[in-house]
Design brief:
The protein is α/β, with parallel strands linked by helices and 372 residues long. The protein has 14 helices and 15 strands. Helix 1 (20-28) runs parallel beside helix 2, helix 6 (131-148) crosses helix 7 and helix 10 (306-327) packs across helix 11.
């Protein structure tokens, strides 16, 4: 199979779909890889390093999309990239379609086979291709909250760690999944007073056993969210419903009950965000203020640390990329139900139920697509 890696063009996105180590694995397995020139610039991987790994360097993204049987990316294709996709071509990347009807329509119009990292399931549960980026975004959350918590940047002016004799900042983490757990770990490590809201009884027990007395683990209800958000200096929104739009847990009316200068880091922004007032931002302009509350809603948080996040992502995606290349997409999806769960668009139809419901579009059962 001919696998193509274009340079990411989303603003301030410095990750790359495949690093030279991953390229070498595919080439060793008998496949050909083409990489757009300077695609690895953000991770300090030169064109020569890709050549040494066995890739051919092409001049433009157009060359990649025209020639490749499968395109491997990091972020969702932008409009210009959707226009270059073709019928039967495999796209393997993050899509987050539930909050992006325009992209969904672009993929449907192209006729491509769009497989989303974020809905591939694990053999032992979980979302193995989403997890590494959720870990990084979660660990970044308290860092961003602490930075924008500075008074001159609009925050409450309370030091995250406190100092002897002075209380630390109060951090509320909404959701105790992968990103929420990692956010809580870092916030606890920074010395903050941390509360985690979670709905799953099994997850609550795990969090309670892990954190002990270092974090307050509370069942998530409308009442508990209202109570703890009112006193928080920072809130980390880490709610996930696989493939679906994030629930709007905090309305604009709720903001008036929150501290002036409270910093909300909405990690769920890729899926539309868990605040009514959330809208996607970039690393160039990461924050905005609504009713005295600072919103940090960067839709590609891990892009700020591309060397770490590209390596982590490639470790997770490489086995699936090899499976698709070795078997061809149809056989790979037919034989592997966990990989098949990643199929979001095929033959102009949405093939992931939660996405179809979120976008109010028709749904096509993916097993039928694979058997076609």
């Amino acid at each position: 199979m001919l696998v193509g890696v274009p340079k990411e063009i989303k603003p301030q996105e410095n990750r790359v779909g495949m690093n030279p180590d991953s390229v070498k694995e595919l080439v060793s397995a008998g496949h050909k890889v083409i990489v757009e020139t300077n695609a690895g610039q953000g991770i300090r991987a030169s064109d020569d390093e890709y050549r040494k790994a066995g890739a051919s360097i092409v001049a433009t993204a157009k060359d990649v999309f025209e020639k490749a049987d499968m395109v491997v990316k990091v972020k969702e294709p932008q409009a210009v990239e959707c226009a270059m996709l073709r019928e039967g071509q495999v796209l393997f990347t993050y899509l987050h379609l539930a909050a992006d009807s325009k992209q969904a329509q672009g993929l449907m119009n192209s006729g491509c086979v769009a497989i989303a990292y974020e809905t591939v399931t694990g053999r032992n549960g979980g979302l193995p291709l989403l997890a590494p980026m959720s870990e990084i975004a979660g660990r970044m959350g308290p860092q961003m909250a602490a930075f924008y918590g500075q008074k001159h940047l609009g925050g409450t002016g309370r030091l995250m760690s406190g100092v002897p004799g002075v209380e630390p900042a109060e951090v509320l983490v909404i959701g105790g999944g992968v990103s929420g757990f990692n956010a809580a770990r870092v916030a606890v490590g920074m010395g903050a007073r941390v509360t985690i809201l979670e709905r799953s009884p099994d997850r609550i027990r795990f969090l309670d056993e892990y954190f002990g007395t270092s974090a307050n683990v509370v069942t998530s209800t409308a009442a508990s969210l209202e109570r703890y958000s009112a006193t928080a200096d920072s809130i980390i929104g880490a709610v996930l419903i696989p493939g679906a739009a994030a629930p709007k847990l905090i309305s604009r009316a709720d903001l008036k009950n929150m501290k002036e200068g409270c910093v909300v880091v909405d990690i769920a922004i890729d899926q539309g965000g868990c605040l009514e007032t959330s809208k996607a931002t970039t690393h160039d302009k990461p924050v905005y203020e609504v009713d005295g509350v600072v919103h940090y809603c960067v839709a590609n948080m891990p892009g700020a640390f591309p060397q770490s996040s590209t390596a982590a992502l490639n470790h997770a995606t490489l086995p699936y990329t090899l499976e698709l290349a070795n078997k061809g997409w149809r056989m790979a999806l037919t034989e592997n139900p966990h990989l098949r769960a990643g199929l979001n668009v095929f033959e102009g139809k949405i093939t992931y139920k939660a996405v179809a419901e979120a976008l109010n579009m028709d749904y096509k059962e993916p097993v039928f697509a694979c058997a076609a």
